[in-house]
Design brief:
The chain is α+β, with helices and mostly antiparallel strands. The chain is about 40% helix and about 35% strand. The protein folds into 2 domains: about 90 residues, Ribosomal protein S6/Translation elongation factor EF1B (Alpha-Beta Plaits, 2-Layer Sandwich), CATH 3.30.70; about 35 residues, no CATH class. The chain has a 4-stranded antiparallel β-sheet, with helices on one face. Strand 2 and strand 3 form a beta hairpin. The longest helix has 15 residues.
């Protein structure tokens, strides 16, 4: 099972009763052996450009654990779902997310949560590698 992020743009008229559409998408994911671990609803937003005649959409992001082979099956079902006007499925960059957490911790002043190697300068880290420097 791999982690994926699903970004789904729902039809703007579904803003009032989105639960039915979200249940349908969750069922599609679960029917293909996946599990939704987190849902983040951003609400109705203006689109950068018109999609299928709509200027607005309801943005919902899902964190999903699913097998790589099942992603194609989910995509094919989402392509024909009437509620969905656009979707994007990506595999999150875990290294970038970890780096963002470190930066976030530094900004908050929680230096104790940061690994010793992160406190070292790039030059110190380079010199510590075998066959380098001193």
């Amino acid at each position: 099972m791999s982690n994926y992020e699903f970004a789904v743009l729902y039809h703007p008229d579904l803003e009032v009763d989105l639960s039915k559409a979200e249940t349908k998408i969750t069922k599609i994911i679960e029917d293909n052996g996946g599990k939704v671990t987190k849902t983040d609803n951003w609400g109705k937003r203006k689109l950068a450009y018109t999609i299928k005649g709509h200027d607005h959409a309801v943005y919902v992001f899902y964190a999903v654990e699913i097998a790589g082979e099942s992603v194609g099956k989910v995509e094919s079902v989402l392509n024909i779902a009437d509620e969905v006007i656009r979707f994007l499925i990506v595999k999150p960059d875990l290294k970038a997310m970890a780096k963002a957490e470190i930066v976030k911790a530094k900004r908050k002043g929680h230096e104790d949560t940061i690994d010793k190697n992160d406190k070292k300068t790039e030059e110190e880290q380079y010199l510590e590698k075998p066959g380098r420097g001193r």
